[in-house]
Amino acid sequence: DVKVTQSSRYLVKRTGEKVFLECVQDMDHENMFWYRQDPGLGLRLIYFSYDVKMKEKGDIPEGYSVSREKKERFSLILESASTNQTSMYLCASTLRGGLAETQYFGPGTRLLVL
Amino acid sequence: AQSVTQPDIHITVSEGASLELRCNYSYGATPYLFWYVQSPGQGLQLLLKYFSGDTLVQGIKGFEAEFKRSQSSFNLRKPSVHWSDAAEYFCAVGPRGSYIPTFGRGTSLIVHP
């Protein structure tokens, strides 16, 4: 069974703090994704990565950066957290590229920025 | 660019009743189509997907969906809903050759006993 884990289920941070959200998958997947989920807006793609050290911007990359130093790990970084980044963050991975591949999701990290 | 619409924000059904969740998409060609479910406090889980062939797709947990090209729809159905089906449901579409699906805004299913 594919397992995608996220480092925290709940996180509370203060405005201006640097925040790291970690995602790890255990099935040697090539592609990893970070989404943001807000009520009434569905899932919006922040960044994705199709290989180690490779990244592509999604629909809403502003205020975020990512790091993928190892194949199994994909980190989302909020350089200076703001209250409008309070949200649920979901990580996903796929074995290879292309929509034929199933996306496997982690349980999510609910971030509150005060 | 493709888009996907889930017209119903909330749907309330009684346990044992049938269910249909609507999904409409906008795209020039036939895209890949997906339904995901998100139980409370969980990530998304794939229910079913359509790429080509038979337009009636069977998924997990007793769900099915029918692709109707003429209506640009991919509605999700279940003949008899269980209380454990209460969750958020997302339809997603994507063009062939793309990495990334576009998700709808979700439909929240409430199940009354």
Question: Could you explain how this protein is built, in words?
Answer:
The complex is a heterodimer of chains A (114) and B (113). Chain A has 114 residues and is mainly β. Chain A has strands at 4-6, 10-13, 19-25, 31-38, 42-51, 54-57, 65-70, 73-78, 87-94, 104-105, 109-113. The model of chain A has no long low-confidence stretch (mean pLDDT 92). Helices cover 0% and strands 51% of the residues of chain B. Chain B has strands at residues 3-5, 10-14, 19-21, 24-26, 32-38, 44-50, 56-58, 64-68, 73-78, 87-94, 102-103, 107-112. In chain B, strand 5 (32-38) and strand 6 (44-50) form a beta hairpin. The model of chain B has no long low-confidence stretch (mean pLDDT 92). Classes of the chains: A mainly beta (114), B mainly beta (113). At the A-B interface, strand 5 and strand 9 of A face strand 6 of B.
Number of helices of chain B: 0
Uncertain spans of chain A: none
Radius of gyration of chain B: 13 Å
Q: How confident overall, as mean pLDDT of chain A?
A: 92
What is the subunit arrangement here? Answer: heterodimer
Major sheet of chain A, described briefly?
Answer: 7 strands, mixed
The unreliable regions of chain B are none
What is the global morphology of chain B?
globular
What is the rounded distance between the termini of chain A?
Answer: 37 Å
Task: Summarize the helix and strand pattern of chain A as letters.
Answer: EEEEEEEEEEE
Strand count of chain B: 12
C-alpha Rg of chain A (nearest Å):
13 Å
Supply the helix-strand structural class of chain A: mainly beta
Beta content of chain A: over 45%
Helix content of chain A: under 10%
